[in-house]
Amino acid sequence: MLELVNILRCQKLVQSPTSFCRLIRYLHKEPIPVAWKKPGIGWTKLNFDGSCKVGSGKASIGGVVRNHNAEFMLGYAESIGIANSTIAELTALRRGLELVLENGWNNDIWLEGDEKTLVDIIVRRRQVKCMEVQKHISHINSLLPGLNNCIVSHVYREGNRAADKFAKMGHQLDQPTIWTHSPPDEVLPIFHDDAQGIPIIRKKGI
């Protein structure tokens, strides 16, 4: 079962007759609090992210798996060479799915990323023209049937900070790295905030 939890509101706005005025109002909404949400009891949550350096084009990926108590289960990060943001995000999701399946966490899985377009492609099985993107999507689609009861959702980047941190750490790594017992120290403050449900204020118009 695949569900799009966060509706792509901007897309809905531009389809209405008064789209321009409504879009302006949307962009000037008050700042909103965004927090990482724990999965339900018995569920496992994978947050994933890709990171691309402006100028060099070098990309890295990262992600983190936590349980319903927000307890750390696994983290991963690696540099993937030259790639655009879409490829980085797809690679991050693909690697996360592989690790989830390898560890037998295939029941009640919540997959969450901060790239709306990617979530839309996966959930709605939207067609893409780029052959490289198609290849990654085909790989992801071949992994999804191995999951029992799966939710895919978008979250603003303020709610995806742990995965973002792992992805940025990937730039500094010479080889793929997986953490299984405890997360690196630099991620601990984010884990604490997430476990407590502490929100980060998302500035209006972003």
Short overview:
This is RNase H type-1 domain-containing protein. The chain has helices at 9-13, 19-27, 85-102, 116-124, 131-143, 161-169, 188-196, and strands at 32-34, 44-52, 58-67, 72-82, 107-113, 148-154, 177-179, 200-202. The protein has 206 residues and is α/β, with parallel strands linked by helices.
Low-confidence runs of at least 5 consecutive residues: 1-18
DSSP helix fraction: 25-40%
Strand order in the largest sheet: 6-5-2-3-4-7
* Count of domain modules: 1
CATH topology: Nucleotidyltransferase, domain 5
Strand fraction equals: 25-35%
Rg calc: 17 Å
Q: What's the overall geometry?
A: globular
Count of individual beta strands: 8
The number of helical elements comes to 7
CATH architecture: 2-Layer Sandwich
List the helices and strands in order: HHEEEEHEHHEHEHE
In the CATH scheme, the class would be Alpha Beta
Which whole number gives the mean pLDDT? Answer: 87
Structural class: alpha/beta
Q: Main sheet, how many strands, which sense, barrel? A: 6 strands, mixed
